[in-house]
Known about the structure:
306 residues, alpha/beta, nine-stranded mixed beta sheet, disordered N terminus
Amino acid sequence: MEYPIDYLKCLLNSLLxxxxxxxxxxxxxxxxxxxxxxxxxxENLSRIKNKLIVISGKGxxxxxTIVVNLAYGxxxxxxxxxxxxxxxxxxxxxxxxxxxxxxxxxxxxGIEPIEILPNLKAISISFMIQNKDQPIIWRGxxxxxxxxxxxxxxxxxxxxxxxxxxxxxxxxxxxxxxxxISDMNGALIVTTPQDVAILDSRKSVLFAKELxxxxxxxxxxxxxxxxPHCKKEIDLFGxxxxxxxxxxxxxxxxxxxPVEPEMVKLGDSGQPFIHFRKETxxxxxxxxxxxxxxxxxxNHESQRSL
Length: 306
């Protein structure tokens, strides 16, 4: 059966085009219900080993592409992975995972996330909207409620990694996630080489530091392009900006991912590049980034156990 998303479904039906009434709806949440949701939130998070948030200073840098490929790569390596898409206004993970149009169902354990692989599952606001062209017109408090419900009411189960795909910037969604997940293990910053992207990515690093979230590193996406004909590298957007920012801000640099035209096609068709073109140099670069992340998490866990 379809999951009866009680409060959230009511909000979706009544507030998609009436954001001005939001404050009145928010006050309807009972104190007892909030306490129960907070309890479930803590219980859910206790079963997730590593919680990571992927953020960027500006849009259009390929952040969701990075999220999908990193999550898929981790799952292929045998890790149990969940993806939480908190981009309320422009959720794209479902399309890139090939699960667009899926509907949520219920179990006695709560909302069941959509399964991509036996050990990879995802949740997105897009699964709750009948018309994909319908805009969501919400203010900050309602976003906080929605994100909390997705963390507390979803049956995430035991996970090695929960990867949160956040919208660009340092606004309501990433702030809400970092406040709700008090033991966030790390933030990944995605940027492109241009100066304007680097400028905003530096803000993302400082945002994470301000919230006491460890910065796992900066990923420079769309860094150079290998001509398929002459095999020479062309600096379409430049290179090296992300690495320079990491040196200036004293955070790790995880790698440069080149422009890959086929990645766009595969993303639109719901086939993660890292798996479906695993023989390519770009996929190997992504795999190297995953190794750096998993090594960091292992070392961090060892330090915590001392």
